[in-house]
Amino acid sequence: MSNYLKDEAEYEQNQTVIKRGRALDPKIVSQYLQLFFNSAIGAVGLYIMMKFIQLVNKDVQRKMEDREIAAMKIALDCRNQYSINKCHPDARAPALEQKCSEWYYCMNHADKNKNFQQSATLWAETLAEILNAFLKPISVRSLFFILVTSCGVILVTNMAFYSYRIQYYGVTRDNGR
């Protein structure tokens, strides 16, 4: 029985050594570094994309408010014209019949012009304005350089991690490890 306990203690000690050795294994360390690097790149990209969407959303909201204020001003003007020209149905002058109908329609339907289609159109317009404002001062050559450099850094770093693992395991196999 004591022989069994001795074997079990030795087994536990060997497992601890194996676990420590695997934790410091260069292949595993390089995989974790590569995972961290790629995760950081992805997180930065996701952050930039979310900030860009928030920027577009704020601009769209501001433009929607501007359009709503403009529509309210038009409705107020129509209401003023309707009351100044005494367009109430019982006091309306026959010559102003068509104009009074237009003012009535204008003051009662101006606030009902909000809908999803206008919002989607405003999103597209705002997105186009932002992209044009961003790309206009940047030359095609500069944009191409930034794109190639960014992709190159990501590609070279991943290839370096990968080739390190291949070279490390080629050397350790040759040494009989």
From TrEMBL:
Keyword flag Membrane: yes
Keyword vocabulary terms for this entry: Membrane, Transmembrane, Transmembrane helix
Highest taxon listed in the record's lineage: Eukaryota
Residues annotated as domain Brl1/Brr6: 29-165
InterPro entries: Brl1/Brr6, Brl1/Brr6_dom
GO biological process terms held by the UniProt record: lipid homeostasis; nuclear envelope organization
TM region positions: 32-53, 143-164
Keyword Transmembrane helix: yes
GO cellular component: nuclear membrane
Protein's UniProt name: LAFE_0F17898g1_1
UniProt organism field: Lachancea fermentati
